[in-house]
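Order emerges. As here.
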Amino acid sequence: GNICVGTMLPRQNAHESDRTVLNSAIRSNAAGMGYVVADFAANTAIGDAGDENNATYYADTIHPTAAGHAIMAAIIINALFP
């Protein structure tokens, strides 16, 4: 089976510059390390800095709501079954 690695979502009190570096590393190492990327951070509803304040997708500025998880599930499915 495939290994799927997700990028980091924004969250309260996260260091955005560190998140950007981590997500870039996840994306750039995928081919060489043999995994596919579920690029949550590329989604404009849940992945941009500040999106954690949207109560539709985040329950508490850290944890996704059911609507947020639905977006994440679709991203994972599309990554694993392009």
